[in-house]
Write a structure and sequence with these properties.
GO terms for molecular function: isomerase activity. This is Glucosamine-6-phosphate isomerase. Its EC number is 3.5.99.6. 35% of the residues lie in helices and 15% in strands. With 251 residues, it is an alpha/beta fold. The longest helix is centred in the middle third of the chain and has 21 residues, at 112-132. It binds 2-amino-2-deoxy-6-O-phosphono-alpha-D-glucopyranose. 2-amino-2-deoxy-6-O-phosphono-alpha-D-glucopyranose (GLP) binds at residues 36-40, 67-68, 142-144, 150-151, 171, 175.
Length: 251
């Protein structure tokens, strides 16, 4: 538990560095890092950029896998998660584009009727890619105020995999703040890795800041996973949890 969001970012980035160093000690070994979007990880990305500049993390030895992407937004759209990642991390570190993996959410030439089948195939490919690359070493995740992780909304099953998801009213409302200057509103659907996909990472690093995450964190620890998807983390890989005092208050 840290004093504020800046300290949370420092702690979280130190955990990333420690695990990165342990994994990449053998020459040529690569670190597979799962990444999240949203407001919370922005400061952590700034800390990782500093570590890259100081030479303590070499991004040419990292492959990244993102949790999710809105369905229907072009990767260069200002609210797509691909754009978010470029803006907040990838354009500031020497990572080759071939090492960046983000679920595909833009399928302009498809009829609505064939969309779901094509996306389903893409989702299966994303799962295979993660396995083919040796699995995710550390998945950095945030938490929604309703307890969602990635875009796994309440009701998501423990074994869920990468798939199309419908966003809840609460999540759409929470993410509206990012779309105020945009040419569109929050999409109602997204492509998201599943709870199963996240829990299979070797380790997980959950970060949360601010009073609006108090209930979600409480439910993650004490609640029912059917209502709070983050509670499924209790049965998966080891989870590091970095929170600030205000998010922790209910615990
Ligand atoms: C989105 C993302 C999640 C993220 C959540 C919380 O819904 N899909 O991965 O954890 O927002 O975001 P914030 O950090 O902005 O509260």
């Amino acid at each position: 538990v840290s004093k504020d969001s800046v300290q949370v970012a420092v702690e979280a980035s130190n955990i990333v560095e420690r695990l990165y160093k342990a994994k990449t000690r053998p020459e040529k070994a690569c670190f597979n890092l799962g990444l999240a979007t949203g407001g919370t990880p922005v400061l952590t990305y700034q800390e990782l950029i500093k570590k890259s500049r100081h030479g303590s993390i070499d991004f040419s030895r990292i492959e990244t896998f993102n949790l999710d992407e809105y369905l229907g937004l072009h990767p260069t759209h200002d609210q797509s998660y691909a754009h978010f990642m470029n803006h907040n991390l990838f354009s500031h570190v020497p990572i080759p584009s071939s090492s960046i993996h983000i679920p595909k959410g833009y399928f302009p030439d498809l009829e609505e009727s064939s969309l779901d089948d094509v996306v389903k195939k893409e989702c299966e490919e994303y799962e295979k890619l993660i396995v083919h690359k040796g699995g995710v070493d550390l998945w950095l995740i945030g938490i929604g105020r309703n307890g969602h992780i990635a875009f796994n909304e309440p009701g998501s099953s423990k074994s869920s995999r990468t798939r199309i998801v419908e966003l809840t009213k609460d999540t759409i409302e929470a993410n509206t703040r990012f779309f105020t200057d945009s040419d569109c509103s929050v999409p109602s659907r997204a492509v998201s890795v599943g709870i199963g996909t996240i829990c299979e990472a070797r380790e997980i690093l959950l970060i949360a800041t601010g009073a609006n995450k108090q209930q979600a964190l409480y439910d993650m620890v004490f609640g029912e996973p059917e209502h709070c998807p983050a509670a499924w983390l209790r049965g998966g890989a080891p989870v590091h949890v970095c929170v600030d005092e205000s998010a922790f208050a209910k615990l």
